[in-house]
Structure formats: C-alpha cells, structure tokens
Amino acid sequence: MYSVEPEGAAPRPWSRRRAWPWWLLIVAAAGIGMAVPSVRTALTGGQAGSADAKQTAPAAGYNAAQGNNPVQVAATGPQATGTALPGGYSMTSFGPLGPVDREFLTKVRQAGLWEGPAGTMAQTKAADERVKEVGRQLATDHKGLDQQVRQVSAQLGVPLPDKPSDEQQGWLNEMNAAATPQQFDDVFSNRLRAAHGKVFALVSQIRSGTRNELVRTFAQTAVNVVMKHMTLLESIGNVNFAALPEPVSGASSAAKGGAPDATFHPDAIWAVAGLAVAIGAIAAFRMFRGSRGSRRRPAY
C-alpha cells in the first residue's frame, strides 16, 4: 500500500501529518479588513467626517433670491497644516481659496458698480416703462448683492475694487450719451444682457467647482441673481440674441480648459494591497485543499 511516511518511521494519525493552513484565512481576513476602510476613504476623498466637527458661521448680507436673510455657511474649522496647496491658493477656515474664487468676488463687486448706476440712469433716460421697472429691480438687487460680496470678501481677506472696469465705464458712458430714449432702451437691454451672460459662465463654474464653502454658498446666490436678471432683461423684448456669443459644446470647453483635476488618493494604495493579500491568501488556501483532496489516504 502507498504510504507517505519515511521508511522506518512510526505511522502518525492522518489528522496530524499536515495541519490545515488556517493562518491563510487569518491573513485573508486581515487583508480585507485593511482594504475596506481604505476603499471607502478613497471613494469619498477623505471627506467623511463628523457633523459635530463643523461650526456654523454666518455670511451676513442680502440674499436676493431668498429675501433679506443672512446666509448660513458651515465652517470647516482648523485645517491641516501639512496639506500642500496648488500655486495661488491660500487656506481659510472655510477651505482652500483659489485665484478664480478671488476673480469671482472681484467680478461680482464690479458688476454692482456699473449695473446699479445703469438701473438708476434708466429712471430718467428710458422711454419704455418696462425698462424703468427692470432698472429699478437691478439697482435694488445689486445694492444687496454688493453688501454681501463685501461681507464675504472681508471674511476671506480678499481686497475689492472701488470702481468698475474701463469697459464697464465705457458702457455707462454709452448709455448716458444715447441720443434718444429709444436708443437708451436698446443699449441698456443689450449691454446688460450680454454682460450677464458672460458673468454667468464664471459664476456657474465657481458654484460647480470651488473648494471654499463660503464662496460656494455665495455663488449660489449669485447664480440665482444673474438668472433672474437675464430673464428680466429679456422680458423687455428688444434683446438681439443673434449678437450674443454662441454656446460652446462641453467637449470644446474641456479641450480649451484642460482635463478635469483628477487626484489619486493615497488610501487607494492600501486598498489595492489589502485586496491583493486577501485574494492571494484565499487562492493559496483553495490550492492546498485541492492538492490534499487529490492525494490518496495511506493505509495503516
């Protein structure tokens, strides 16, 4: 009969000749235990945290979309000092603040510095009563929005201009120089509608991608205001839509703006390593069982 015992050795019970490799199962369990938390952290970007760790800080000011109510913003609290920030970024208690965030606040401030006066000018120079109504609403909304952008900028330490850009001042001069009330109505509607469409692209981009919670909340207010003003200006009925810039496809925008910012989370390394350990241990265990089952049990 076949025997696996060395020649001359005393036979041993089969159950003690080779121990089952239960340690492989322990290694597999450890690998899974290491991988699962890392996978969760990698997928969430490490942002899953306790709600109790956040503090509520007000961004006081006028919310033109919701009435005269201060906007409540969740502050992120102290930031990790070891986190490297891209060039041009600074860390605030509301999260990273980038160059485009600062540009956004500047643009909103400058918009109020010329659109408010344009709305006031419409009260004396417009021919159409609808133009006067829209002008009053724009002036009122920008007064409140200007108060809020100054409050937000003060909290973030962003300096703001105190006069419109040269281009915006040129539009005001063009309105003021209109030869007739009807010409004023045409310049008012088309200049303001084109300007709102241009700034809407920046505002929506900030709302979609900013890393700063205070800026994100204020951008939502700005999105609502810009949409409201575009609708009001179009209600006048003399906007030349053919003169507005044509929409750009998403593919073209991505080609111009570059690829999205993809960040590889370091916990993904631990996730892959843990899964590899678990799979390897399970495979080794199954191979051992298969090889043992194929062997003939010796007779005693």
What does this structure look like?
The chain has a domain at 54-74 and 91-246: Ferritin, core subunit, four-helix bundle (Ferritin), CATH 1.20.1260.10. 60% of the residues lie in helices and 5% in strands. The protein has helices at 14-17, 22-44, 99-125, 129-156, 166-176, 181-209, 213-234, 250-257, 267-293; strands at residues 55-59, 71-75, 90-92, 95-97. The chain has 300 residues and is mainly α. The chain is elongated and about 95 Å long. The chain has nine helices and four strands. The model is unreliable at 44-70, 76-81 and 253-265 (pLDDT under 50). A two-stranded antiparallel sheet has the order 1-2. It has a two-stranded antiparallel ribbon with strand order 3-4.
Q: Sheet bearing the most strands, described? A: 2 strands, antiparallel
Helical stretch count? 9
Approximate shape: elongated
Structural class: mainly alpha
SSE sequence, one letter per element: HHEEEEHHHHHHH
**Average of per-residue pLDDT values:** 77
The gyration radius over C-alpha positions equals 33 Å
CATH-derived topology of the domain at 54-74 and 91-246: Ferritin
Low-pLDDT stretches: 44-70, 76-81, 253-265
Strand order of the largest sheet: 1-2
CATH architecture of the domain at 54-74 and 91-246: Up-down Bundle
The amount of helix comes to 55-70%
- The beta-strand count equals 4
What is the CATH H-level superfamily of the domain at 54-74 and 91-246?
Answer: Ferritin, core subunit, four-helix bundle
What's the structural blueprint in terms of helices and strands?
Blueprint: H1 14-17, H2 22-44, E1 55-59, E2 71-75, E3 90-92, E4 95-97, H3 99-125, H4 129-156, H5 166-176, H6 181-209, H7 213-234, H8 250-257, H9 267-293
Antiparallel strand pairs: 1-2, 3-4
Helix pairs in contact: 2-9, 3-4, 3-5, 3-6, 4-7, 5-6, 6-7
